[in-house]
Amino acid sequence: MKHPVHSVKPLDSIQHARELMERHRVNQLPVVVDGRLVGIVTDRDLRDAFPSVFDAPDFTRRKPKVPTTDPRAVTVETVMTAAVTTAGPGDSMADAVRLMRSQRIGALPVVEGERLVGILTRSDILDACIDLVELEDRRQSGLFTEETP
Question: Which residues lie across from 33 on neighbouring strands?
Answer without folding.
Answer: 36
